[in-house]
């Protein structure tokens, strides 16, 4: 995986760090593993933070000393010296604060990059079966929102925890030096605070996960609404679509409200409890000073009250950070769902493919999808010579696309073997094999950029001459010839500025720029009007010369010129032959042709 051109270049493989270190059952430990490459920088940030935050626990003794000087009527020079000390402590805040910002920002942003890059790499290695089961919007939420929650947690929890701990340690040490007996008050307050934080975190964990799941479902519903927009408008179903999103949004509202109420209830109770403790500390210290039971100066009363107030604020800050921390831990668990997914297409350690002739053999291939009683492919035997064009036809759900997916390695057979040039697909590095394969799908997906970017997508060392040649072979030169921008013509979001036929021909040009040995056409003309279909079919007829070409089509008019037509029904091959031979045989192909108006 290539590193970004700017910024900090990670020293670890993002996917390896993700898969080896992130575990759903251990979110906190997983976070520490993710931060391990930044351990020295974060350690230095802690030291710098303690120094820059030292004014918080150094100024109260200065205040106490000044109060005692005032009460005793001491010399002004002593006040000046204490004031100078306070200024020095305050002055170091800025440089050390910038050190903290640079170190923590570097760790936080690099961690976010590493997790996002690792998720992207992991998703690319997961099987198509996983992606078919998983909503695209949920995957998007994991990469965007979950990592954002992780960043937010690190940005808010780190300074809160370090500040609270440094304040606590400083306050206890100085209190032990001045009024040792009051250390016992801290010894009581701190365990109570820790118990409250743990209790809140446990109660909020379930509510946070419920809220995250509801947000993911809302994201999926919004994505669905966007995809169905033409159907919604065409059928006048705007209110129905709005109601579906509103229903899911209401679920998010209720889950979020329950989470907010929980956090608010515990926040209020904890704040009141510690304010009462702070008040008792002040009154107790004042009582001891006035009665003379303990030798406490007025300045020390102020010191103890200030420190306990600081401790109270630190504990409240920790409690307020607890929900953010819980959301961050839930984000780690969500990320772990991808990191721990085992449905992986792993080609590591397998034979690299350096050349392909295009001979394909399926030997008694059986494919069964999870949850299906009947196999999608049931003992398929087929041999395709290199350079031949084979078309697969049959009723919907007969197994045509499954055959293509099996040949491409997207689907792993339960039994049997698939061979390319006599080599078993199970032993090949599929990524290296697919460098010799191009696919033209039914639903064309284009980048929002230019014609050049779309045609050259993923191809290296191609020139404008190569792109023009691919466009010509795909019968798509009209896309750039009618534009002043030429190859820089912008196609719009998902090719919105092009017609359906132009989008499909541009997809064919993108497939041909790679000069594939195997060309796969999956319903490449099914959504086109007759005129566009004719131009695309002409492009495909030229594209398949000299290449092994696999075609799936419902329209028999697009497969007439195939060298062999394979008729599939119920996961089995029931007929093979040319268009003329199959029409004369009077079987399933002949009946399909009759339904489509003769097929001749």
How would you describe this structure to a colleague?
It is a single chain. By secondary structure, the protein is of the alpha/beta class. The protein has 2 domains: 326 residues, ABC transporter type 1, transmembrane domain (ABC transporter transmembrane region fold, Up-down Bundle); 236 residues, Rossmann fold, CATH 3.40.50.300. It contains 21 helices and 10 strands. The strands form 2 sheets. The protein has a 6-stranded mixed β-sheet with strand order 6-7-8-3-9-10, sandwiched between helices. A 4-stranded antiparallel β-sheet has the order 2-1-4-5, covered by helices on one side. A hairpin with a 2-residue loop joins strand 4 and strand 5. Helix 3 runs antiparallel to helix 6, helix 9 runs antiparallel to helix 11 and helix 20 crosses helix 21.
């Amino acid at each position: 995986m290539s590193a970004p051109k700017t910024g900090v270049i990670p020293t670890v493989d993002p996917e390896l760090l993700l898969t080896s270190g992130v575990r759903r059952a251990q979110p906190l430990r997983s976070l520490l593993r993710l931060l391990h490459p930044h351990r020295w920088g974060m350690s230095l940030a802690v030291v710098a933070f303690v120094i820059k935050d030292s004014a918080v626990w150094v100024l109260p003794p200065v205040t106490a000393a000044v109060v005692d000087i005032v009460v005793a009527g001491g010399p002004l020079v002593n006040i000046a010296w204490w004031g100078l000390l306070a200024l020095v402590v305050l002055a170091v805040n800025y440089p050390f604060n910038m050190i903290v910002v640079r170190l923590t920002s570097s760790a936080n942003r690099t961690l976010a990059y590493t997790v996002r890059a690792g998720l992207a790499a992991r998703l690319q290695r997961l099987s198509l079966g996983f992606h078919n089961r998983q909503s695209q919007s949920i995957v998007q939420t994991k990469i965007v929102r979950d990592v954002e929650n992780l960043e937010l947690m690190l940005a808010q929890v780190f300074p809160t925890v370090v500040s609270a701990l440094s304040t606590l340690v400083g306050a206890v040490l100085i209190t032990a030096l001045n009024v040792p007996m009051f250390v016992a008050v801290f010894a009581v307050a701190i365990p109570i605070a820790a118990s409250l934080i743990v209790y809140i975190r446990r109660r909020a964990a379930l509510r946070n996960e419920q809220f995250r799941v509801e947000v993911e479902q809302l994201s999926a519903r919004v994505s669905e609404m966007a995809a169905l927009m033409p159907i919604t408008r065409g059928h006048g179903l705007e209110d129905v679509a709005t109601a579906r999103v509103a229903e899911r949004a209401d679920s998010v509202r209720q889950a979020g409200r329950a989470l907010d109420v929980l956090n608010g209830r515990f926040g209020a109770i904890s704040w009141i409890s510690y304010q009462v403790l702070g008040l008792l500390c002040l009154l107790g210290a004042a009582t001891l000073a006035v009665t003379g039971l303990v030798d406490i100066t007025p300045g020390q009363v102020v010191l103890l009250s200030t420190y306990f107030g600081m401790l109270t604020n630190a504990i409240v800050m920790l409690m307020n950070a607890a929900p953010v921390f819980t959301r961050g831990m839930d984000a780690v668990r969500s990320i772990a769902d991808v990191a721990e997914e085992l449905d992986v297409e792993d080609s590591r350690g397998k034979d690299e493919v350096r050349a392909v002739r295009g001979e394909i053999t399926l030997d008694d291939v059986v494919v069964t999808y999870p949850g299906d009683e009947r196999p999608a492919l049931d003992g398929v035997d087929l041999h395709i010579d290199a350079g031949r064009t084979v078309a697969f036809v049959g009723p919907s759900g007969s197994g045509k696309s499954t055959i293509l997916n099996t040949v491409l390695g997207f689907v792993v057979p339960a039994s049997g073997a698939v061979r390319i040039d006599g080599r078993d697909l199970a032993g090949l590095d599929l990524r290296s094999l697919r460098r010799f394969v191009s696919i033209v799908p039914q639903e064309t997906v284009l980048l929002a950029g230019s014609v050049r970017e779309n045609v050259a997508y993923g191809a290296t060392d191609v020139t404008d001459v190569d792109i023009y040649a691919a466009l010509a072979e795909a019968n798509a030169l009209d896309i750039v010839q009618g534009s002043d921008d030429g190859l820089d013509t912008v196609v719009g979001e998902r090719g919105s500025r092009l017609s359906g036929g132009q989008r499909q021909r541009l997809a064919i040009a993108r497939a041909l720029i790679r000069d594939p040995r195997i060309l796969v056409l999956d319903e490449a003309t099914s959504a086109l009007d007759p005129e566009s279909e004719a131009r695309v079919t002409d492009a495909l007829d030229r594209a398949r010369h000299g290449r092994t070409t696999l075609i799936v089509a419902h329209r028999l008019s697009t497969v007439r010129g195939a060298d062999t037509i394979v008729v599939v029904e119920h996961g089995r091959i029931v007929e093979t032959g040319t268009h003329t031979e199959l029409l004369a045989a009077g079987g399933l192909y002949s009946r399909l042709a009759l339904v489509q108006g003769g097929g001749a």
